[in-house]
Write a structure and sequence with these properties.
The complex is a heterodimer.
Chain A lengths: L11 E5 H11 L4 E4 L6 H14 L2 E4 L3 H13 L4 E6 H17 L5 E7 L15 H6 L3 E2 L4 H18 L3 E6 H4 L1 E6 L16 H4 L5 H22 L4 E3 L7 E6 H13 L6 E4 L1 E3 L3 H8 L4 E5 L5 H13 L4 E3 L12 H11 L25 H12 L6 E3 L24 H13 L3 E6 H17 L5 E6 L15 E4 L2 E4 L9 H7 L4 E5 L4 H12 L5 E6 L6 H5 L1
Parallel strand pairs in A: 2-3, 2-4, 4-5, 5-7, 6-7, 10-11, 10-13, 13-14, 15-16, 16-17, 17-21, 20-21
Antiparallel strand pairs in A: 1-8, 6-12, 9-11, 18-19
Chain B lengths: L6 E9 L4 H14 L3 E5 L10 E9 L14 E4 L17 E5 L13 H9 L4 E5 L1 H9 L5 H11 L7 H11 L2 H13 L5
The chains are: A alpha/beta, B alpha/beta.
């Protein structure tokens, strides 16, 4: 039996932050899990897909995060407890559903796990602070600092969600989701819930004029939850220091660095640590800052807390000196020494460490040996001069096309965007474009863009890299490469999945379509040359299994 | 009577695919077994794509941050020789470098000589230990996938990490799948013989 399912209460086991969230969900009697893979949240899907059968929890890999959120919403409306997990960009994709969901509220508790990635360890696109969604959607948001809090806050989130009938967001970062520490286990809750969707359009339909009632109710809920936040133990002052006029305000992983910094500089300053990012316990904050001379906000990425504190300080303590982004960068992840430096400046002290410049270039990740993409690249280079063609990049293993020795990526944005942007460039300039999109990415977001290119008449050459899996995030199944059997997924490898990508391409109205194994270099190169001259959208489905799955596919 | 340390900070660097996450798991379990507070930090996804990997393990008392601070490493283990250069900002004069004498060339770059690397390291610490872990494992066991275990075995036997050999062995037994257990335990013990 997997250790994460151990039912010895009071046992301490080492868990990843993500694993602790799973455990917290199980201890809350979760019924329904949906997700789309994205690091640093991927483990949540991976582990649940393994334990779903054993635990009797419903699990699915959805086609994208918007659908995942909607599926969970449906389950929650019907009275089940649901958890949706995604990386930061996933909430962007899901955001269209997030807003109305907060208006309608939920029935069964619903927790949305959003894992940000400061420093972009596993991300391109942008360095996003998803906290902004708390304000935009009015969704209560908790920020755990370590694996124990990941578990405890997940349980609390389900409680809040069901008590106030509102989804709750848990926002982590890489250094929380991929932090490992011992976690004290509780009891796994096995509670059968009867699922039923009540016909109640006043509650679940967001049409005007009813929508204004929903909005008022939502704002009232937030006020009530603010009261809950005021009383909550997870917002608390760590290290009281009587008479001390300097204080620290922080949350999430930054709290851990603040504790280290105080140790390092031998200081005893009071710390106000938030477990709630939204709504903030304003009374608690005012009480904390009213008698201080200066406060240091230890915060990673954009200074949201700093803005809030500045606004609150105006009435209660207008002379308060507030330090935040002046001392701590908005860019890049926070390190313990960054906080030590900031704290040293804050108390007008000194801190020095030896400078060390790394004397050689970073070892960049590259495609695995034997990756079918090497074959695609070589075939393209046989067909055309790369300097004369624009290459559209996509999110997935082909992100690495930017790096040497390949260097075939002229733009990279978000999932599915390679096709959309190619269309725009084509309509603007008519230059030759080869744009790449993965099998999973195509299903996630590429289809509307493909239809658009056909409908609005552009002619990029789109290469769909069908390696029979969602590779970069850990080889999860997707509809083009797997079948769902009851409570499990079966990778189909060389056989078609639940849907056939080339069938979808045809259905989108594409006339120039070929399915080629990139090992057939000659045919591939010839087709690339031929398709680049076409006046209409052309698609090559490059079908060859991921090198890391070859062994599995033979078993 | 146990002589408990206050804090031990370990940085492990290497190349994706060298098994750093497994080493981390073993260290975590061993530290937990000895009732230490323990925290580690890792990054996922690069493992199979051959990029630089940096993981941290901290144990002792009052451990908050999962990241080791710059200049704060007690021991830096490098599973690939060039990668150690990426970790020098974690070292102080007190830091010990335990390096696998094993190069994975970086495409489009010249591979520095071992002497060049030692010269740079010596500016930071005099405690530099170079061990041909990969070559030794290949020779003795036919594979270098266990080079990391070899280095851990050496480190434990020379008291470079304040954890007991028995804790490590029980951790290996907990973490390593049954079919590879024998090889890993043999490697761990064999490393003690290196002088």
């Amino acid at each position: 039996m997997e250790e994460i399912l151990s039912n010895k209460p009071e046992e301490k086991i080492i868990l990843l932050g993500n694993e602790a969230i799973i455990r917290g969900a199980l201890e809350s009697g979760v019924n329904f899990i949906s997700t789309y893979p994205g690091t640093p949240a991927s483990e949540i899907g991976n582990v649940f897909s393994r334990i779903a059968k054993e635990t009797g929890v419903y699990f699915e890999f959805s086609t994208n995060e918007k659908v995942a959120l909607e599926a969970a919403a449906g389950a929650s409306f019907s009275g089940l407890r649901a958890l949706v997990a995604m990386k930061d960009f996933g909430i962007n994709v899901a955001s269209d559903s997030l807003m109305p969901l907060c208006y309608t509220g939920v029935e069964g508790g619903m927790v949305i796990l959003v894992a940000d990635d400061p420093n972009c360890w596993s991300s391109a696109q942008s360095e996003q602070s998803s906290r902004a969604y708390s304000y935009l959607a009015h969704i209560p948001t908790l920020e755990p600092s370590d694996p124990q809090e990941c578990k405890d806050f997940t349980k609390l989130a389900f409680e809040i969600s069901e008590k106030f009938k509102i989804p709750v967001m848990i926002r982590t970062t890489t250094r929380v989701s991929h932090q490992k520490a011992p976690v004290l286990l509780g009891k796994i809750l096995k509670k059968k819930r009867k699922a039923f969707f009540p016909k109640d359009p006043q509650r679940f339909s967001t049409m005007p004029p009813g929508i204004f009632d929903l909005k008022r109710k939502l704002l009232e809920k937030i006020e009530k939850i603010k009261g809950f936040s005021e009383k909550s133990k997870i917002n608390s002052i760590k290290q009281q220091a009587k008479g001390e006029k300097r204080g620290i305000i922080t949350s999430g992983v930054s709290y851990l660095y603040a504790r280290e910094a105080l140790k390092e500089l031998n200081l005893n300053l009071p710390i106000l640590k938030f477990g709630f990012f939204y709504p903030l316990p304003e009374k608690k904050i005012k009480n904390f800052i009213k008698n201080l001379k200066k406060v240091l906000i230890v915060e990673e990425l954009e200074g949201y807390l700093e803005k809030e504190i500045k606004a609150l300080a105006k009435d209660i303590n207008p002379k308060l000196q507030i330090f935040g982004k002046k001392l701590i960068s908005e860019v890049g992840e926070l390190h313990p020494e960054d906080v030590i430096f900031a704290l040293a400046k804050f108390v007008e002290g000194k801190y020095q460490i030896k400078k060390a410049e790394i004397p050689f270039k970073k070892r960049l990740p590259r495609l695995c040996p034997g990756c079918p993409y090497w074959l695609i690249i070589s075939a393209i280079k046989k067909a055309i001069d790369p300097k004369k063609v624009i290459f559209g990049g996509e999110i997935g293993c082909y992100m690495l096309f930017r790096n040497p020795p390949i260097e075939m990526q002229d733009y990279l944005s978000c999932m599915g965007s390679s096709v959309g942007i190619a269309h725009g460039i084509k309509r603007a300039t008519g230059q030759k474009i080869i744009t790449f999109v993965g099998d999973s990415s195509f299903i996630h977001a590429g289809i509307p863009a493909l239809i658009n290119a056909v409908f609005n008449k552009s002619n990029p050459l789109i290469i769909i890299m069908d390696n029979r899996t969602t590779a970069m995030t850990g080889h999860q199944p997707h509809p083009g490469a797997a079948l769902r059997t009851d409570s499990e997924y079966q990778m189909t490898f060389k056989m078609p999945g639940a849907i056939k990508i080339e069938d979808i391409v045809l259905a989108c109205g594409v006339k120039n379509l070929k399915v080629i194994d990139p090992a057939n270099q000659e045919e591939f190169a010839k087709t690339v040359k031929e398709f680049l001259e076409k006046d209409e959208v052309s698609v090559i489905v490059a079908k060859r299994i991921c090198a890391l799955l070859v062994k599995k596919s033979k078993e | 009577m146990k002589n408990k340390i206050s804090q031990f900070n370990l940085v492990i660097v290497g190349v994706g695919g060298q098994g750093l996450l497994t080493l981390l798991q073993i260290l975590n379990e061993a530290a937990l077994k000895e009732d230490y507070e323990v925290k580690s930090a890792e990054v996922h996804g690069l493992s199979q794509r051959g990029g630089s990997i940096e993981v941290y393990c901290r144990f002792g008392k009052d451990i908050f941050s999962p990241l080791v601070k710059k200049g704060g490493a007690n021991l830096i283990i490098s599973l690939e020789t060039q990668e150690v250069l990426r970790s020098i900002h974690f070292s102080s004069k007190e830091t010990t470098f335990l390096i696998n004498n094993f190069f994975v060339p970086i495409p489009d770059q010249n591979t520095p000589k071992i002497e060049e690397i030692s010269k740079i390291l010596e500016k930071f610490s005099k405690k530099i230990i170079l061990i041909p872990a990969s070559d030794t494992c290949k020779k003795e066991f036919g594979t270098d996938v266990i080079a990391g275990i070899y280095l851990l075995g050496y480190a434990i036997s020379k008291n470079l990490i304040p954890l007991k050999s028995n804790s490590m062995i029980s951790a290996i037994k907990k973490v390593i799948p049954e079919k590879y257990l024998d090889l890993n335990l043999k490697t761990f013990h064999f490393a003690k013989k290196f002088e």
